[in-house]
């Protein structure tokens, strides 16, 4: 049977290196998870529909505030259109819109 031969003075050094490695891995995992959660939190306020040309149409705003702005991108895709239904039954204090966005007319 193979046994690791560790000198008494090296045992503590190896344990410290192992602990440092474990903390580094945990830090990287938590950093990646927190970045993903912050991105998703901003996108959580909007419902959208994917368009065939690779852009999206914003169809609903789910946020709590009465002052909101439509983002340039959702889920990594450019916002190209905004549905007219996004404004129904909603009181707005302030609204910001990006440029080059088409709107849908009510029928």
* Poorly predicted segments: none
The gross shape turns out to be elongated
Q: Which structural category do the helix and sheet elements fall into? A: alpha/beta
How many H/I helices?
Answer: 1
Q: How much helicity do the residues have?
A: 25-40%
Extended strand count: 7
Main beta sheet: 5 strands, mixed
Radius of gyration: 25 Å
Mean pLDDT over the residues: 75
The figure for the number of domains is 2
Q: Into which percentage range does the β-strand content fall? A: 25-35%
Keywords: Membrane, Transmembrane, Transmembrane helix
Transmembrane segments: 21-39
Characterization of this structure:
With 107 residues, the chain is an alpha/beta fold. The protein has 2 domains: 7-44; 46-103, no CATH class. It has one helix at 8-43; strands spanning 46-50, 56-61, 67-69, 73-74, 77-82, 94-96, 102-103. The radius of gyration is 25 Å and the shape is elongated. Keywords: Membrane, Transmembrane, Transmembrane helix.
How do you describe this structure in short?
By secondary structure, the chain is of the alpha/beta class.
